[in-house]
Structure formats: structure tokens, C-alpha cells
Amino acid sequence: MPSPQPREVIRVTYRLETSGDIAAIAAKIASDQSTGTFVDVPGETPELKARVAARVTAVRPLASVDRPSWPEACATGPVRRADVDIEFPLDAVGTDIAALTTIALGGAFSIKGLSGLRIVGLTLPAAFGRDHPGPQFGIAGSRRLTGVYDRPIIGTIVKPALGLRPLETAALVRDLVEADVDFIKDDEKLMSPAYSSLEDRVGAIMPIILDHEQKTGKKVMYAFNLTSHDPERMVRDHDIIVKAGGNAAVVAIQSIGFGGMAFLRKRSSLALHAHRAGWDVLTRHPGLGFDFAVYQQLWRLLGVDQFQINGIGVKYWEPDESFVASFEAVTTPIFSDADRVLPVAGSGQWGGQAPETYRRTGRTVDLMYLCGGGIVSHPGGPAAGVRAVRQAWEAAVADIPLAVYAETHPDLAQSIAKFGGSAKDA
Amino acid sequence: MPSPQPREVIRVTYRLETSGDIAAIAAKIASDQSTGTFVDVPGETPELKARVAARVTAVRPLASVDRPSWPEACATGPVRRADVDIEFPLDAVGTDIAALTTIALGGAFSIKGLSGLRIVGLTLPAAFGRDHPGPQFGIAGSRRLTGVYDRPIIGTIVKPALGLRPLETAALVRDLVEADVDFIKDDEKLMSPAYSSLEDRVGAIMPIILDHEQKTGKKVMYAFNLTSHDPERMVRDHDIIVKAGGNAAVVAIQSIGFGGMAFLRKRSSLALHAHRAGWDVLTRHPGLGFDFAVYQQLWRLLGVDQFQINGIGVKYWEPDESFVASFEAVTTPIFSDADRVLPVAGSGQWGGQAPETYRRTGRTVDLMYLCGGGIVSHPGGPAAGVRAVRQAWEAAVADIPLAVYAETHPDLAQSIAKFGGSAKDA
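C-alpha cells for the assembled complex are given below, as produced in the milestone run.
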């Protein structure tokens, strides 16, 4: 007789902290987030509990600490910590991302008696892979659309972030396209203000992209920022981009929400470049929120193709090891290679971080390397800036120190002279 | 000559914490979130800055503290704190909620050199009122739909949270309807799993609601939970509810995101009852995230009608004073009385909290009072449970101590006997 099929479960790992009893609080989460309420109610039979109840399947104690993560808890002794696995029956949750979030990821943060809670693991059953579209382009599609193989896709951002009118933006874009960059994006903060509507921006920029393609055969990928709280507006803007011959868009995923992303993806023929603006609030305190490895799965299932994850030596708070972990997360299959997405290293980048980026991310060139000022503020102009970044990556892949490679590559040399003060690996 | 029109601005108040210089970090936020980048770039003219730059308009120092809110910061001295007002030109942002979020609310959390950041104030210009639908029903509409005036709308929740099949749910609903409750809702965790699809639930429940209306003239408001990451699915489910004669829906707002809410609201003819599952992660640590007074404005503009905000003496972590502040927030006009929404007090409620709720929220009965176990686990059954809650509110409004009122109201007396141990005001 065949053994019974194991029931399909969603496994969530919570990093709990309490001055009370870890096992009791773990059991409370499992109960509260499935069947429980504060008093016994009619109908809560053992049979029903078996059908839908979440179960604590592992408790892995961690070292206690002296201080609670959240000041609300006046701990009078050591603060206990543990990683706790809780399994939710797939039948009780289904594969809806909003259901998953409400039941297994969000609700637990309201529970009393905790002084810290972070969700550090999420393992989904295969049904999630079947029921969600996943990335439409991902790594392979981004390479195909840009025509860049065997090295990182080199990107840049139009700066200043806000304030340029479409023709001013277009003039900068012309310089960048002629500089032979592979990818250009709107700043995540530039959406469709009165002085630069997305439609006008598309109208000013796309002819430059297409003209350059005509002349050189190279189509620079331009990601227009179509972020809006209104999914229909995003689709309208999407269609404007497609009609004008564009092939990519920026979405500030936190700001559009799951609903916006799902609606857009269903209609999208653009590579969707995810910016995480606002994500830090969910991850910056290590005793609260989510590991990126958890969060990014949801957005990949919903259809992100390219994921901004900061980089080495960024101008923001995020430490290098967090970037390295994020890089691994977005390139590790959830269910198959097709759901891997293109990691985008950005923020304060110039060629200087190439060697360390390469070394610490598994010696791959499957990434986008996004330099703002690092390209446009190069002393020799943007074209020299792009060349310098490519040279830095050539050196990195060949294990040649940048300073040595710079002896025969003046663009890189100029770049080191200008930006090297802040480099970790020049 | 008339004085020039003051430019319209969005004002955000950030509660900053740093071991560095408050004024410098405030200026950095203003710069980073509008025009800035890490090196000077071509095109960033003074004229452009004047057009779109955010400006620090006030710095109100707070007492320093010894410990940083976030452990990443190894403070070597007092941690400085201040409330800082930054004004963003409306022209630079527009009225899109995702733009507002990306530019003014989300991005600042990534900035280096902070050891704490919480957004504690948001003042929007009138254009936001014109460009967003706001609540369709709010307080007046919720009263009209339920036919309840001059006292709180008494609601309950079908429990257990998960696991009941539609006919099992319907049997409980029949009891609750016959108990003369005004409002019933699905648990926020029950969406549309295989064992209880929303369609089947509507099919089982609405005939009971309508039958009761036929017999008594009273239409109990049932809020079906149509939360989904897929806005079109929500609208499909919305239409099923409408077609069956329903008039309300639960949405887990954090899980559907701004996009889901905007899409649904545009097509909705139901009262939208907002559950905040997951919100706690954004507010529980006082040195991180958002005050509810900020967050709730966005959802009201997008169209929430009824807002769950916990209550007095809840089973969750949230302290009473936070509930009181939330109550004031959702009932204070943003632009006009029409954008006020119905506060929903819930979690661990029974009649016992009525006097304190009434006293601390401006002696109003314009609220929904939601009791789960507090109604269904009443020793005399749900009908006695509903009567007991109404009696508690009668006593509260008349300033009669519950214990005194219970002498002549046996349902309330039974309620006190069963639940009074956990009451703050019985």
C-alpha cells in the first residue's frame, strides 16, 4: 500500500523574542493565525482544527539577549529568542498572495507578549508556482532585449531625480544613448507630475532610442516609471510605452501594492524593473519585519523581472552582506530557473565596486550594474563613464587589480581619480 | 496688487533620531527625496531646484535619549531627536498616492546616519481631496444601510476564524441574525479557500439575511471578505455579493495594497470595511514607521468606509491610548465631513469596555462596536450577548455604572459574570 501523500503546507519561520515562554507564544501564533479566538466558541471541533490548524513544527533556540528589540517590553530578565517554524495547511490558505500575507505573514505582528518578531523564512508549495505568472523576462529576457551577453548590463539613471522637463530629460538621454549605455531608467521618484507627464516623456525620449537603434542596431532599454496607485493608469501608461516602441518600465513595488502589480503583470509586455522605495521600513531593524529573502519571493511570483537590491558600498544604510544575501535570494529558483530574476546593483556605484561585487556574488556577470553619477559625472563625459565601468568589469572578471588595469585604460584611471576616494576596491 | 498665491505644498513631519547632526540629516532627506544625488550632475540649476526641491521648514528638538532605536547605530554619546517638517511642492509630487508614498513617505527610511525615523505628521493640500474618491458611505452611509441610529452599530465576527464550510458558517449566521445583531463579518483570515469559496459563502448566507429582512424589516449588514491580490477577482467577488443583495465587504488593506483598493473602490457599491492585518509591523516600534494618523489618511482618500482600529483593553499589543488617538484620527475631517469614516472598535470586546470607550472618544455613539466571543459565548446565547452589549452602551451613555445597570438587566449581569474578569470597567 502506498504511504499517504504528505499534506501540502506553507512553512514560515518566525524569529521570536519574548521575556515569556517561547513555546507558548509560538503556539499562540499558530492558533491565532488559523482557528483561534480568545474564548472557546461553538463549532471549533477537533476535526475542524485538523483541517485548517497551523502547527508549530520546530523551535530552534537562539542566544538570549539583555535588551528587547521593542521598547514596549519591560523585560525583567533575559529576553529569550528562537527561530520557530510554523506550518499552515495549503488548504487553509490557498495560493492567493493577499491571503498568504494576511494569514501567515502580517497578522502575527499584533500579538501581545512579543518584544521582537521577524519573518526570516518562507517555503511555499508548488501550487504557488502554478497559480502565479512569475517573471515574464527575468535574466534571459533582459539579455535578449538589450542584446548584452557575457558581461553585466550597464545601466544609468537620469538625474536630477525631479525637476527636468521632458525635453531637458531627452537631451540628457541623447548623451547617454550616445555614450553606449545598455539601460537607462527614470528615477523612481519621477512618475507623472504636471511638468513631466509620462506621455510627454515617452514622446520626447523614444524617438532618440529608436533613432539610435536605426543607426547602430543597438536598442537601449529605457525603463519609464509608470508607478501609480491606480492600476488602470499604469496600464494606460504601459500601452503608451509599448506603442512608442519601449520595452521596460520601473515600478515602485511597495507603493503600488500586490494589487497594482498583479493587474499590470497580466497585461504587460514590458520588462518590469522593481524599485523597493519604502522597503527599508520593513527590514532595517533586525528585530522587526522581514528578511528580504522572504519578501522578494512574493514579488517574483507576481512578475518582477529585474530587482534593485542596492550594491557594495552604497550610499544608503544597507550593509554589503545584506546586498550579497539579496543577490543570492533573487537568483535562487523558487520553483524553477524561470522564476529567477535579474539582480540590479545600484546606489553610489561606479566601476570601483565591480571586483568585490563579482567576487562576493558567485563570480557571475548575470546582473545589471546601475551607475548614476558614476557614469554621468565622469570627467571625460558619460561615454568615458560607460567605458570605465566596462573596463572595471573586464578587470574584475580577469582578476586584475583595477589600479593595474587602469595603467592601460585611461577612462578607468580617470574614474578612479574622481571616485576612488569612496571606493572599497579600487 | 494682490500678494502672490502661496505655493501648494505637502507637509510631512519626520521624527528623526541620530547621533550626528539633526539639521544636516533633515537637509539630506529634503535633498535626497527631491533633486539630490551623491555627486553634482549637469542640469541641476538653481531654477530647477526652486521648482521642485523639498525644504526643511521647521526643526523642533526633542529630549535626547541614551539608546538608539535601531541597534545598527553604535552611538557614542547622546542620541539626538527632533520633529522635522519638510515641505514638498505639490507640483513636484502630484496627487498620486503611490507618488506621495515613494517620494515623501517611503524613501527616507533608506538614509544612512539615522538611528530612528518615524513619520508622525502629514498635511495634504486640497488637490488630494479633489482627485480621490474618499469614502462612499462613511458614518452616515453605514447608519443608513444598517438602519441603526442613536447608538453604536453592534457587530460580530463568525468564529472560528478558519475551517467552517459555507453551510456550517450559515448555521452560525442564522443564530447571529436571529440574535438581532446589526453587522456580521467574515474573519479577515477567511478569504476564498477551496473549502469555503466566497461564492459558496454568499450563496449560503445571503438568503438568511434577506429572509430575516423580509420577516422583520431589518437588514443585517454582512461584510464578506473579498481580499485578494488580484483586483479583478475582488471585483468579480464584489459583483457576486451585490447580485445576491449584500451591502458590505471586508478588505485587508495592507494585503491588497493601494492598487487593489483604488481599483475596487472605482467599481464598488458596497460599504468597504478595512482590516489592518500587518499594519502593526509599521507602527509597533515607536522609533520606526508611521503613526496611524498618517497612514489612515491614505486609505480614507482611497475609499475606506469603516476602519478597524482595535479598542479598549484589547487582546493585542496595542495600548488604549493608541486606540483613542486612532479614533480621533479617523473621525477628524481631512478636507470635509464627508471623508470621516466609521471607527470600528474590536478585539476582545464585550459590553465591559463600553463606558471607557464612550468616555475617552468624545462621548459619541458614532462607531461600530465589534464583539466576537463577547457575543457568541454569552452564557444565554448570542441574542442575550447582543442585548448585553446594548445594555452596556445604554449604561455608558447614561453614566450609570455597569454593575448598577446589571441589577435590573440580567443579560448584562451574566455577561459581567462571564467576561468581567478581564474587564477594565465593569
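The CA atoms of residues 66 and 202 of chain A lie 55 Å apart. Chain A is about 40% helix and 20% strand. Further analysis is deferred to the final report.
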